[in-house]
TrEMBL record:
SMART domains: EAL, GAF, GGDEF. SUPFAM superfamilies: EAL domain-like, GAF domain-like, Nucleotide cyclase. Coiled coil: none annotated. It comes from Azospirillum melinis. This is EAL domain-containing protein.
Length: 609
């Protein structure tokens, strides 16, 4: 134990406890300093003031250079210097510290808290001691009048209040407020602190910042390849790096795997930008594990409380949305964007509604766009196109909701819904003598599953539909995703007797020579090459080369997006086999498709000039 002297007063300061560094480290681990007020602690201080009949009661935590009040009754300030703290004198003893008249005690007579506000005369404090004997601070009562020694009943009451305070501190830690890997406060603590700050009228409106130190798939891959020990080390290192960049007394939270957060209470946009730049630079440096550098993507997002009128869970969601935008755009950090957030909210609403739509009877339906033989002008089939009319949002484009479904487990039931609806319609048409094959679009995720062809075969049996009554359209990019599994599934479909078309051909990354390996029957040239085919020489060269090469390899060629007489005639002249587009017909409901066929289908002679 050692004693220090202040030059100004030459009075002895409080003794420094023998295990001071351990005590300070323990105080930090309890995550109490610089946290918002909590009702349970405030109830204890109010009870202390009432039981001991004093105007001031405090739960004081003694930090390295200050005492900070977790709860206070009757005292306006949040902290005072440690050198002035009566509580610092109570740290190294189990006994109560009682000062009957501070002006008569040489330790405190010249203390600014005695000679000035709050004019302390009487003080009584009980240490807040952990199970291993380290004192975090005290619960104390103060009066501006001298008082006699505490009665035995009052001493017992103060000790009981100390025990109650420590019991709540331990319970607070045990109920799930700390992350098990980093021992930082977790998401529940973040939300509780943010709520408390929002309810405090004296608090400067805060800014919430969320840091994704790695994209979710990167963290999962890190764990899978190098193990959980490496992933834990990564998170601990990220926490250390981020904490080193934050302003003093700023709490860092560990929300979830590789996701951290903090709350800034003051400072202008320049201060915020400087902090975010430091954090971004720190977490983008490669992480070293056993000599191997590991680099990850990172995203940082922030939102001002003034931009979010709702509760703190919404504040956290908005900051997380901004961090996700930072990850996607690879910007160092992003501010919350209400328009982007509305789009994300709409996406979530659509995904949630899509399940209901598949279970209902009146939201999802199929439209059928005719395909014609460019040599004979005869209808040779149709493409089935999914349509969704949301009860509140109205028509939803498949270009919007299908990619969303492909990111989730909804893609499989959605594909099965579409195939089932088309097979029902095809069976109905064959009973009525309409024997035209219908094309169905399938997702790359469908082809990546090992049982897709088996499930299709079961659906064909269930609906009593022959395999050559349908064919599947699959995008070129899908074929590049998992080559081996895609090939297996396509060959299985071909063995069933189902034709396969490569949709949007020419928009992916594969070379035309890749055609020789694809077990398909036709290629479908993307409409962006067709719409200006009559005028754009570059489009003409690409389409003519594709037609010739596909034919040489034994594929049929279909052009989509045929919208003008000139395009129709050019394609027919250069040997394209089939076409579809608005010139021929827009997508039609089943009954309208039947009427279109009954009226003579597509008749070039009847086309408007």
């Amino acid at each position: 134990m050692k004693t220090e002297m202040t030059p100004a007063t030459a009075k002895p300061l409080a003794p420094i406890p023998a295990r001071e560094e351990d005590r300070l480290a323990t105080l930090q681990r309890y995550e109490l300093l610089d946290t918002p007020a909590e009702a349970a602690f405030d109830q204890i201080t109010r009870l202390a003031a009432k039981l001991l009949k004093v105007p001031v009661a405090l739960i004081s935590l003694v930090d390295r250079d200050r005492q900070w009040f977790k709860s206070r009754v009757g005292l306006p300030v949040q902290e005072t210097p440690r050198e002035h703290a009566f509580c610092a004198h109570a740290l190294d003893s189990d006994a109560l510290l009682v000062v009957g008249d501070a002006r008569q005690d040489e330790r405190f007579a010249d203390n600014p808290l005695v000679t000035g506000d709050p004019n302390i005369r009487f003080y009584a404090g009980a240490p807040l001691r952990t199970a291993d004997g380290l004192a975090l601070g005290t619960i104390c009562v103060i009066d501006d009048q001298p008082r006699p020694a505490l009665t035995p009943e009052e001493e017992e009451a103060l000790r009981d209040l100390s025990a109650m305070t420590m019991a709540h501190i331990e319970a607070r830690r045990a109920v799930g407020y700390l992350h098990p890997v980093t021992s930082l406060s977790n998401r529940f603590r973040f939300l509780a602190d943010a709520d408390a700050l929002a309810d405090d009228p004296a608090t400067v409106p805060e800014t919430a910042v969320v840091i994704d130190a790695a994209a979710s798939q990167q963290y999962a891959e890190l764990t899978r390849v190098l193990g959980q020990v490496c992933a834990d080390a990564f998170e601990i290192d990220c926490a250390r790096r981020i904490a080193a960049c934050l302003p003093d007394h700023t709490r860092l939270y560990h929300l979830s795997p590789a996701r951290f957060a903090f709350i800034l209470l003051s400072g202008g946009d320049g201060d915020l930008a400087d902090t975010l730049d430091r954090v971004s630079s720190a977490i983008r440096s490669p992480f070293q594990y056993q000599g191997v550098p590991i680099a990850t993507s990172a995203g940082i997002g922030f939102v001002h409380r003034s931009d979010i009128a709702e509760e703190s869970v919404e504040l956290l969601r908005a900051a997380t949305s901004a961090a996700h935008q930072s990850l996607e755009t690879q910007k160092p950090w992003c501010a919350y964007d209400e328009e982007q957030d509305r789009a994300a909210h709409r996406a979530f609403l659509l995904l949630r509604s899509l399940t209901e739509a598949m279970d209902g009877q009146d939201q999802l339906h199929m439209a059928y766009q005719p395909k014609v033989d460019l040599r004979t002008d005869r209808c040779i089939g149709a493409e089935a196109l999914l349509r969704w009319t949301h009860p509140e949002l109205g028509p939803i484009s498949p270009a919007e909701f299908v990619p969303l479904a492909e990111r989730t487990a909804l893609v499989r039931p959605l594909t099965e819904w579409v195939i089932g609806a088309v097979l029902t319609q095809v069976a109905h048409w064959h009973r009525r003598g309409i024997a035209l094959p219908v094309s169905i679009n399938i997702s790359m995720l469908d082809l990546g599953s090992g049982d897709f062809a088996d499930r299709v075969e079961a659906l064909l049996d269930r609906h009593d539909v022959q395999a050559d009554w349908i064919d599947f359209e699959v995008t070129e990019s899908a074929l590049m995703t998992d080559r081996a599994e895609v090939d297996r599934q396509l060959r299985s479909l071909r063995r069933l007797g189902i034709a396969v078309e490569i949709d949007d051909f020419g928009t992916g990354q594969s070379a035309l020579s890749y055609l020789k390996d694809i077990p398909a029957t036709a290629v479908k040239i993307d409409q962006r090459f067709i719409r200006s085919i009559a005028d754009e020489r570059s489009d003409q060269i690409m389409v003519r080369s594709t037609i010739d090469l596909a034919h040489d390899l034994g594929y049929l060629v279909i052009a989509e997006g045929v919208e003008t007489d000139e395009a129709y005639d050019w394609l027919r002249l250069h040997g394209c086999d089939f076409g579809q587009g608005y010139l021929i017909s827009r997508p039609l409901a089943p009954a309208a498709f039947e009427d279109w066929l009954a009226a003579g289908a597509f008749r070039p002679a009847a086309m408007p000039v």
